[in-house]
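Our consortium's second objective concerns turning raw sequence data into structural hypotheses that experimental partners can test. To show how far this objective has progressed, the report includes one record in full. It was chosen at random from the queue rather than selected for favorable results. The single chain below, 297 residues long, was entered without modification.
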Amino acid sequence: MSETTLKRILAALVVVVAAWGGFTLVSGRTGSAAPSADPVLDALASVEPAHLDRIRIEGRHDTVELARSGVAWTVDGYPADSAAVKRILAALDLSTGGDVVATNPANHARLGVAADSAVRATLTQGDRSVTVLVGRQGPSYGMAYLRLPDQDEVVLLQTDLRGALDRRLDDFRDKTIVAVDTARVRTVEIERDGATVRVSRADSTWTLESGAPADSLRMRDLLREFSRFLATGFAEAVPDTVDRSVLVRALDAEGDTLAVVWIHGSESTRWATVPGTETVFQVPGWRADRLAPARER
């Protein structure tokens, strides 16, 4: 073989290798290119989590609608838990692209994105709405399978969206019964069985009406509960079988009422109500006892 022929062969090989390399760079792999995850990501990117007006969730347990009301949110007309809303918005703030893991509808049920098994979320911002089907959690924590209702591609994304959405109505509701700035509390009144116990504070010392010092540990626990008295759930009404109710009132230095709570019942589960509202909260007995301790002797 002559030197000229050899040079021509080598030149041809260089051209072939260069062409193959360019194809690899464009396709991302030597085989066929994977389907793009852009449809799901583009759909979610068409609305901004921080500016959403409504989030409708059709889940396994309930169908609920979160709606922005000024700086706060409601869920089916009730005050919404701000932490639950923040979790959803954070899960929608996607910064990492996903991978298409299935294109065959036969895989939809297995991945939890079939119409009858997925959590359907409709996100609305102004006149723009986007609906996504959120399936099972992925192979690692904080991942989920997503699909658009009119497409077969299933995308695996780094997002906590499944855990944030797949909840009951009560899980989205604000469980705060009262929240008081306890630095302003100067007097606490507890009405029980027709008698009222009044405890007042001067500086950091709490005293009973008799002048005797109040139990400092009890007062510490009481104020901690008043700072944010939390429920564990809700009820339609206080049960008719309840035979005891206790009223707890916090007053400021001028004698103005800061908060009033009724505690109903005496068992391990009790009910709390706030005058002027219709909500009935469920509270554990130990928490109720901290807010309304038994009378000191």
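The partners drew two points from this record. The two ends are 114 Å apart (CA to CA). Residues 3-27 form the longest helix (25 residues). Both points have been shared with the crystallography group to help prioritize constructs.
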